[in-house]
């Protein structure tokens, strides 16, 4: 899968794309990242990419010219082009699934007050928010989106079973996890997990998933209950 990332700060991506599972996937060729420096496309003699907003107000806006030139040079007309934005559709599991089915995704990282609206109208297929808060730049969001999508690409995860048992599967959060030792600083692992009865362990884990979801994510719990009641 190919990710094209449009950014004013290409150096932002150098360490994350070399680390952990993401680094391995890049090395093995499962993922390819093309980090495109928007500034290289600026026709301004000082490579400026931002200007004052029409209508007044604080902050600066990313100019259309560098982005139009960068996108025209690197995009096909049928591609998926995301713009990271607090006013986009909220990114979630379903959205990451939908995106993982695409062979190629482009992500525009905004800065300052965002990008000129004409860039969005001309090139963007989806505006995507990673949550109801404001970040200082779209690079943080681009990495979150790329990582969540990449995990669903076949071959990215060593053990694809991990994806089946994860939070949000079946509209529930994950059960608590423990590892050795069985007792640490007087804190014990629940006995049942040490007894090797897999049917009981499955039941216990399921109960814990329901309990936790009901306590911390009533919205998700409601979705789960509705699905169970409707027998879906
Ligand atoms: N003026 C914008 C507003 O009020 O919606 C906020 C701009 S923010 C300081 C700069 C950039 O960070 C945005 O253009 C966007 O690319 C990115 N960004 C900020 N919050 C985000 C979020 N919740 N999800 C995705 N991207 C975000």
Features:
232 residues, alpha/beta, Alpha/beta knot, Trp Operon Repressor, Chain A, 2 domains, 5-stranded parallel β-sheet, two-stranded antiparallel sheet, binds S-adenosylmethionine
Q: Could you walk me through the main structural features you see in this protein, from its secondary elements to its overall organization?
A:
With 232 residues, the chain is an alpha/beta fold. It folds into two domains: 149 residues, Alpha/beta knot (3-Layer(aba) Sandwich), CATH 3.40.1280; 63 residues, tRNA(m1g37)methyltransferase, domain 2 (Trp Operon Repressor, Chain A, Orthogonal Bundle). The chain has eight helices and nine strands. The strands form three sheets. The protein has a five-stranded parallel beta sheet with strand order 2-1-6-5-7. The chain has a two-stranded antiparallel ribbon with strand order 3-4. Helix 2 packs parallel to helix 4, helix 3 crosses helix 5 and helix 7 packs across helix 8. The two termini are 32 Å apart. The model has no long low-confidence stretch (mean pLDDT 96). The structure holds S-adenosylmethionine. The site of S-adenosylmethionine (SAM) has 19 residues, from strand 5 and helix 5.
